[in-house]
Design goal:
Layout: E1 2-8, E2 18-24, E3 30-38, H1 43-60, H2 68-92, E4 100-108, E5 112-118, E6 122-126, E7 131-133, H3 140-146, H4 152-156, E8 177-182, E9 188-192, H5 194-197, H6 202-209, H7 215-228, E10 235-241
Helix pairs in contact: 1-2
C-alpha cells in the first residue's frame, strides 16, 4: 500500500488550521490522519498540530498490529490520551480556551483497515462496486438529517452547517466512533476535512478516483478543484491505495 497526504490554506483563510500526515510504525504499517482545528487566535491550528504530533509519536513507537482488536484498542487509547492532552492545554492558556479539532484516523494493514473519528472530517472507501462514506459526521445538520427533520439538500444551505456536536479537546472525555473493515487490492481510502467535501460532491469524488490516475496527482486535482470553486476553507486529504504488487512506496504489511 502507499499513501499521499496534502493540505492547502485555501483561497480566503489567513492560516491553515488543518493538519495531518501519513506515518509508519516499526513494521512498516501505515497510519493516516486528518485533523481540522477550531478556536480563535490560532488555537485551532494548535489543536490540530497537537493531535497529529501526538499520533505520530505514538504510532512510530508501535512494533506491529496483527488483529482488528489490537488496532481498535490502540485507537481508543490514543484518542482518549490525545483528547486529555489537548483539553489540558486549552485550560493552561487563555487564548487556547475552547480549542478543539476534528480527527479521523485509519490504521491500514495488509488485510484490514481500522478507523476512528470524532467530528465531521470523513473517511471514504472506494472498491470495485461502490464508493462509500464510512464515517458519520458528528454535526448538528447530520443529526437533523438522521432524525428526518431536514433533507441532505437542506443541509447544504443550513445556517448552522458548521456546528459540531463533539470534537477532540473541547471536553474532559470523549467517545470516538471506531470500526474495522476488510479491503482488497486496488481499493482506495480517502480521509478528508470538510474543506474538500463542501466543494466536491461524493459523485464527483468517485468519478475522479475511478479514472485510474496516480493518487498523488488526484490529491492535487482535489485541492485545485476545491480552490477553483471558492476555497473558503482549508482543504486537507489523505489517499491510501492498496496495491496488487510491490510498487514503489509499498510496505511489507
Amino acid at each position: 500500500m502507499y499513501g499521499q497526504f496534502i493540505t492547502d490554506r485555501g483561497q480566503l483563510r489567513a492560516t491553515n488550521e488543518d493538519a495531518g500526515g501519513i506515518f509508519y510504525n516499526k513494521a512498516g504499517q501505515l497510519l493516516a490522519i486528518v485533523a481540522d482545528g477550531m478556536g480563535g487566535h490560532l488555537a485551532g491550528e494548535v489543536a490540530s498540530q497537537l493531535a497529529v504530533s501526538f499520533i505520530k509519536k505514538q504510532w512510530e513507537s508501535i512494533d506491529r498490529i496483527d488483529t482488528p482488536v489490537e488496532a481498535e484498542d490502540l485507537l481508543q487509547t490514543i484518542m482518549t490520551k490525545m483528547n486529555t492532552e489537548i483539553y489540558h492545554c486549552s485550560l493552561e492558556k487563555e487564548e487556547y480556551e475552547g480549542m478543539g479539532t476534528t480527527v479521523v484516523i485509519s490504521i491500514c494493514t495488509k488485510d484490514f483497515v481500522s478507523i476512528a473519528h470524532i467530528g465531521d472530517s470523513r473517511c471514504y472507501l472506494l472498491n470495485e462496486t461502490k464508493f462509500e462514506q464510512l464515517t458519520n459526521d458528528h454535526s448538528l445538520v447530520n443529526e437533523l438529517i438522521r432524525t428526518g427533520q431536514i433533507t441532505k439538500l437542506d443541509a447544504e444551505q443550513h445556517p448552522r452547517k458548521n456546528v459540531l456536536l463533539k470534537a477532540v479537546g473541547t471536553e474532559e472525555s470523549v467517545h470516538p466512533d471506531i470500526q474495522t473493515i476488510n479491503w482488497e487490492a486496488n481499493n482506495i481510502l480517502l480521509l478528508c476535512s470538510d474543506g474538500l467535501t463542501n466543494k466536491i460532491t461524493d459523485e464527483e469524488i468517485e468519478r475522479y478516483l475511478r479514472d485510474g490516475q496516480e493518487i498523488d496527482h488526484l490529491a492535487k486535482e482535489f485541492i485545485h478543484l476545491s480552490n477553483e470553486r471558492g476555497g473558503e476553507d482549508n482543504i486537507s486529504l489523505a489517499l491510501i491505495k492498496k496495491s496488487t504488487s510491490n510498487q514503489v512506496g509499498d510496505s511489507p504489511c
